[in-house]
Each structure stands twice: as structure tokens, then as C-alpha cells.
């Protein structure tokens, strides 16, 4: 406990061939995800972009969190129903807030609602809903003229007026994950903080690194491999921006 939920590492399979032999690495690069020291995804095969890496780990961790809550008999979070009394404070008290402005008579809204509630149970940020019939003043102030309108706020201000992507839990996760991650990266650069990079692992550090961190995503590479060099700069950026590190 007390560790970041996801850490990013790299292993040079020429310099540290024993690790790669023990891990049965036979292709470079191999991007492998571990949880609590055990392999949970032997070889990532998606696109090699920062967004795709984020989406991949975000989904796995979110589904895992949901499964754990159900296992522990915890009640899943749902979207917070907001009113004229609570709306403004809710936006300013939480850094990021994603709000569904809906009307009870709207069919598209009903379809979105069950997805929205599931998303709220897994989301890395605060999720709210506003019934624009019961609380028309809020929706009037927000200039809501279509239902549902899914709007993202940060520190009480609108940063994304209307989400227009797919209405699935995965798509919502991907959307907020990217925005929050890019924001974190921009803030670190602004503050002159050094961006995190992937941790170079050796025979001495590898095993402890896997057991001391809950989730670890590792790039097993060879210096002579051209594909590996292409992946490396993306991997370092991912390590610096991952919303989960």
C-alpha cells in the first residue's frame, strides 16, 4: 500500500538476458502487464501510442476495481444527482466533474443512463447527473439545448462543453483518461518538474519492483531492434503521463 497503482518499467534483454530468459521473452519488444508480481497480460498487441497504452491499462484496472468492489460486497458508486442547492459546490469541491444533463422524457437519455451509472462506479473522477426538467434553472444557466449533454468541468469551469464520442463505459474512460493525463503532463512541465520516465530494471531490482507495486507494465526490448527504438520514446512519454502513476 502507499504505492502508485501503476508503474512503468523497461528491461534491456541483452544486458539482462537472465530476466528475459526466465520470462520466456522470444520477441522484441514484448510489453507485459503484471499485477502483484504475476503476469496478467503476457503480450500487449494493440497500437503503440500513448493513448492506446492508457486506454489498455485504464480498462484493465477499472474492470479489476469493479470486480473487487463486487467481491468485497461494496456498493458501486453511482452518479450523484445534482440540484440547484448542490450543483455549484459540487463543481468547485471536486477537481474534475463529468456531468450528464438529461431530460426524463428523452429516449437517448434512458439508454445512456445505465452506462453512465456503470461508468460512475469505475471512473477515475467524480460523475454527476442533472435532471433538466426538475432543475431547469441549472440547465438554463449552462445553455443546455440538447439531451443528453455530457459536459466535463475542471475546478468549476467547463473544459469540454459537449462529449460527442461513443456512449460506452470504455469510451468515457478513454476520453477522461486522456484529458486528465495530458493535463497532468502539461502541469508537470509548467511547474518545471521532471517528467517520470520508465524505470530501467536489472536482475537485482526486477523481482522486488514487481512485488512492491500493484500494477507494473514492462517493456522487454533489445537495443539492436528497430521497432524497439520506435516504441521507446512513446514508452517514456507514456511513463510520464500515465494517469495512474
TrEMBL record:
Domain Thioredoxin: 63-181
Matches recorded under InterPro entries: PDI, Thioredoxin-like_sf, Thioredoxin_domain
Keyword line: Signal
GO cellular-component term (any): endoplasmic reticulum
Source taxon at top rank: Eukaryota
GO molecular function: protein disulfide isomerase activity
One GO biological process term: protein folding
Leader sequence residues: none
Membership in a protein family: Belongs to the protein disulfide isomerase family.
Protein name: Thioredoxin domain-containing protein
Amino acid at each position: 500500500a502507499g504505492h502508485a497503482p501503476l508503474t512503468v518499467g523497461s528491461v534491456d534483454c541483452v544486458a539482462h538476458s537472465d530476466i528475459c530468459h526466465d520470462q520466456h521473452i522470444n520477441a522484441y519488444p514484448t510489453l507485459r502487464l503484471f499485477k502483484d508480481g504475476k503476469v496478467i497480460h503476457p503480450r500487449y498487441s494493440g497500437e503503440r501510442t500513448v493513448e492506446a497504452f492508457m486506454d489498455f491499462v485504464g480498462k484493465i484496472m477499472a474492470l479489476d476495481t469493479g470486480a473487487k468492489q463486487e467481491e468485497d460486497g461494496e456498493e458501486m458508486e453511482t452518479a450523484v444527482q445534482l440540484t440547484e442547492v448542490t450543483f455549484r459546490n459540487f463543481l468547485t469541491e471536486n477537481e474534475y466533474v463529468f456531468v450528464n444533463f438529461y431530460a426524463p422524457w428523452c429516449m437517448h437519455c434512458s439508454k445512456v443512463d445505465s452506462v453512465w451509472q456503470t461508468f460512475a462506479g469505475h471512473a477515475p473522477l467524480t460523475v454527476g447527473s442533472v435532471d433538466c426538467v426538475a432543475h431547469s434553472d441549472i440547465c438554463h444557466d449552462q445553455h443546455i439545448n440538447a439531451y443528453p449533454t455530457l459536459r466535463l468541468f475542471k475546478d468549476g469551469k467547463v473544459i469540454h462543453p459537449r462529449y460527442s464520442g461513443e456512449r460506452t463505459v470504455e469510451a468515457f474512460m478513454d476520453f477522461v483518461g486522456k484529458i486528465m493525463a495530458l493535463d497532468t503532463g502539461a502541469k508537470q512541465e509548467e511547474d518545471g518538474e521532471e517528467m517520470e520516465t520508465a524505470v530501467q530494471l536489472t536482475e537485482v531490482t526486477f523481482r522486488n519492483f514487481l512485488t512492491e507495486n500493484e500494477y507494473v507494465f514492462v517493456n522487454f526490448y533489445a537495443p539492436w531492434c528497430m521497432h524497439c527504438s520506435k516504441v521507446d520514446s512513446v514508452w517514456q512519454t507514456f511513463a510520464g503521463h500515465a494517469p495512474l502513476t
